[in-house]
Every structure is written in C-alpha cells, then in structure tokens.
Amino acid sequence: MFETVKYEIRNQVAWITLNRPNKLNAFTEQLNLELKEAIKNASKDLDVRCLVITGEGRSFCSGQDLEDIPQDLDYGEVLRSRYNPMVMELHKCEKPVIAAVNGVAAGAGMSLALACDFRLLSEKASFVEAFIHIGLVPDAGNLYYLPRLIGHAKALELAVLGEKITAKDAERFGLVTKVIPLEEWTEQVTAFAERLASMPTAAIGLIKKNLKSSWVSTLEEGLEKDAQAQRLAGLTADHKEGVKAFMEKRKPVFQGK
Length: 257
Ligand code: T3D
Prior knowledge:
This protein is of the alpha/beta class. Helix content is 47%, strand content 16%.
C-alpha cells in the first residue's frame, strides 16, 4: 500500500513504521504524504483503537532529508503543503497515538514525536533539536508542543542550544511516558499499546479533545466542555459496562464505543 511506511494492524493497534532506515528514516515528500495517509486510515478504521508510530532500524526519524530539499518551493510552502497537514492529521486523531521512539529523533522527527500523545523511549533513544545547527527554526509544531509539555524556559534552552537530549534527560524533563530497556522494547511497547486499545477509547478521544482546547478556553468555557464531553461519555456502552463490571466485581470489557 505504501513504499516508505509499513502499515500493519494487530490486536486493534495500527503499527505505522517509517521505513527509510538507510537515511535514518529522514522525511521526503513521499514519506510526509504516506505517513499522513497512514494516520488518516488508522483514524478512520473502526477496527483500530490505538496507533503506534515508530522507525525501522536504529533511528526513529532524522527530520527532513537534507539531500532531498526541494529547489522549486520555499521552505514555508514545504511546511504548508507537506508537514503541516501531517501534524494536523495527528492533531485530529481521536484515538491514542504512541510515538515508540526506538532511536534518534532529530529535527522534524522530534516534532513528530512531540505531536503524539505518549512517548515511549528506548534507553538508546535521543532527541535533537537539529534545526539550529543548520540555521533553521524548529517547525512542524515543535515550538507549539514543546513549551506545553515542558515549559517555556526549558523549551527555549533545548531549541536554541540544540544539544543531544538523552532518554534519561528527556524523562527528567517530563517529555517521556517511559524509558524502556532495549531487551524489553517490543514486549513493553506492544503491552502498552494493547492496554490502551482495550480501554474506553471513546472517552480517551474526549479527554484528548478537551485537554487540547483547555489551552484556549476560559474556565467557564472549559466547564461547559466538560459537561458536553461527559454527556457523550455517559451515553457510551463502555460507561454502562464499566459500572456493571464494578457492581459485579469483575474486570470490564470495553469496546471503544
Ligand atoms: O521546509 C524544509 O524543507 C525545512 C524543513 C526542515 C525540517 C527539519 O527536520 S530540519 C532538520 C533536518 N535534520 C537534521 O539536520 C539532522 C541531520 N542528522 C543528524 O544530525 C545526525 O545524522 C543524527 C543526529 C540524526 C544521527 O547521528 P548519527 O551519528 O547517529 O548518524 P550519522 O552518521 O550522522 O547518519 C547516518 C547516515 O544517515 C549518514 O549517511 P552515510 O554517511 O551513512 O551515507 C547521514 O548522512 C544520513 N542522514 C542522517 N540524517 C539525515 C541523513 N541524510 C539525509 N538527511 C538527514 N536528515
């Protein structure tokens, strides 16, 4: 289906693997577009309840392919036509999205990881705000997500200095859900993804939506959004099942609706 992305569904999890390992999974136009399509497919597929984005080989993604910089477009247009739609597809996704950062995530590769809901890092993984080393500005949502995740001061420091951020440092800054030892990587990422896929994923979608809008809402608007979301969550089969299972003292079986 795709050439630069592997797309597999297992146990209600869509596994989306960036597949240009010889270039450390650097972005080309084709990869931007195929990744966007893969996210769109998984977002729409009723059999999918969680997405995992990861990289083939030793890297997660090294950002824009520096050997494939388009000559015919200015960089603003490259972002508008290729990167921004990819980030917006992630932003629109109502299902939980995990960045399984298996190795280095540099430049727009770091931006991609920041735009996901969870970041699982291999102990060998790292982040690099590589933009500054080539005289560019962090893009693809990097400067939107980073201060929201770790605060303005640390975001500025990382973006300006562009130093390698080890998995341990990323965990210390609060950028990471979990750092995973190499030998447990596949097992732990799979377990985490399948755990999310078995949760009340419609409620997760509502949590994502209201958390995002909280940045631009007054308290009054936020309270109204709580009421609207809770109305919808209260109508789901998963809510009924959760209460029933509690009363029957058993584990609930959620369907994501
Ligand atoms: O609109 C626009 O087009 C602008 C948009 C910009 C968005 C951006 O993402 S800008 C930032 C672009 N990315 C970078 O500047 C990162 C460049 N890469 C690196 O800094 C390092 O490669 C890494 C820190 C990612 C990894 O370092 P290391 O030592 O583990 O690996 P390496 O030896 O540097 O790289 C291995 C190979 O991958 C090497 O090729 P070779 O020598 O084996 O043939 C290297 O050239 C290649 N490679 C790595 N990153 C890229 C790349 N080739 C093309 N583009 C890359 N981004």
